[in-house]
Amino acid sequence: MSEKKQSEQMAISERQEFVQIRQHYIDSAHRSSNVFDSTMITLTTAAI
Q: What's the whole-model pTM score?
């Protein structure tokens, strides 16, 4: 595998991991606090 291809693969997997972590954070924050309303989730999702 070329170096460029390998770094692209790493970037993709890092991004997927980040999205999963962010989703988990949103889910747990939403469950534990009603302050995290749907507007905040929409804004956070739109930021990606």
A: 0.45
